Amino acid sequence: MKVSLIGVGQAGGNVTERLARFDADMGFGAVQGALAVNSAEADLQSLQFVDTQLIGADRVNGHGVGADNELGTEVMQSDIQQVLNSLDGRVSSKSEAIFVVAGLGGGTGSGGAPVLVHHLQQIYDVPVYALGVLPGRNEGALYQANAGRSLKTLLREADSTLLIDNDSWHEQGESVEGAFDTINEKIAKRVGLLFASGEAVEGVGESVVDSSEVINTLRAGGVAALGYATEIASEDSSENITTTMTVSRQALLTGTSLPDATEADSALLVIAGDPDAIPRKGVEKARHWLEDETGSMQVRGGDFPLDSDRLGALVLLGGAERSDRIQRFMDRAREAKKEQETESTDHAEQLTDDRLENLF
């Protein structure tokens, strides 16, 4: 799947650089262009692998907007034309989708990303997706409130929003800085493999995934989640049926970017590894299991040929807003805005809740 990446804010820029570097190091050729946009000049100077664009210089003099995502919205709206001009040549005719990447808890990313998605939708015919990083439970009330408003606005503007929970992919006992570094590396590998799954470079699988299957899975809109797991493979494919089932279960039940997200409107299962080691029976068995587990009849599946001694499973969920994690997060965001909570059984309604205003 050929994509163009635009990182907004500090976290968005860091993740975008990791994604672009991973794609280049692996030789996949999925990333067509990458741009990092920020109001903090120092954060842009630390990026070496992507092009950069400073915004809001007349408002904040390159010092960033702090955690003020309303100001982040304003500076992106003010400088949107120069950002769009910077995309010339980075969103190519080969790009099959655009991903706007942002941390949803800070200022520039959470405020600016929805504005950028809105304008990209008006210009480009390809899908415009958001890749949003949710703040962890302990990152403070302001970050929760920022992310709640940003997420609500993104869900309105983007074709789908792939969420990464900061609590999902870090290691126990890590420092805050170390945890962010680990999460960024895991995002780069998992999302990078998803992008590359339609750009196979090693051998030919029996049923290779292509970009249309990723796009069709995300067509459900709303919240998307991504799971991943890997195990050592046997050289005999018949011995890998159990391994295929194991990594598929782990990817959904313990390796997802959004903990507890198992129900979805659509899903895609990608089994990556040496084509001779991938068992056809195992892939089909895992796909049927995924249908039962997600409650979706729209479960696609296929191979991603890789020169590796391991078998990996990628599970992409579309329309996954029924996750308990989303419910708990939106509750915390409302509490952070000091608004009265009322219990709702409509899982879609919580993402359009009037008690969290849209950013614009």
From TrEMBL:
Database matches in Pfam families: CetZ_C, Tubulin
Keyword Nucleotide-binding in annotation: yes
UniProt cross-references to InterPro entries, sorted A to Z: CetZ, CetZ_C, FtsZ/CetZ, Tubulin/FtsZ-like_C, Tubulin/FtsZ_GTPase_sf, Tubulin_CS, Tubulin_FtsZ_GTPase
Residue numbers spanned by region Disordered: 333-360
Record GO biological process: cell division; microtubule-based process; regulation of cell shape
GO cellular component term of the entry, any: microtubule
Function, in words: Involved in cell shape control.
Coiled-coil ranges from the UniProt annotation: none
Localization in the cell: Cytoplasm
UniProt-recorded name of the protein: Tubulin-like protein CetZ
Keyword annotations: Cell shape, Cytoplasm, GTP-binding, Nucleotide-binding
Family according to the record: Belongs to the CetZ family.
Chain ranges of the Tubulin/FtsZ GTPase domain: 2-203
SMART domains given in the database record: Tubulin
Record lineage: Archaea, Methanobacteriati, Methanobacteriota, Stenosarchaea group, Halobacteria
A GO MF term: GTPase activity
Transmembrane regions listed in the UniProt entry: none
Binding site for GTP: 10-14, 107-109, 139, 166, 184
Tagged with keyword Manganese: no
Source species of the chain: Natrinema versiforme JCM 10478
Classification via HAMAP family: CetZ
Principal location listed in the UniProt entry: cytoplasm
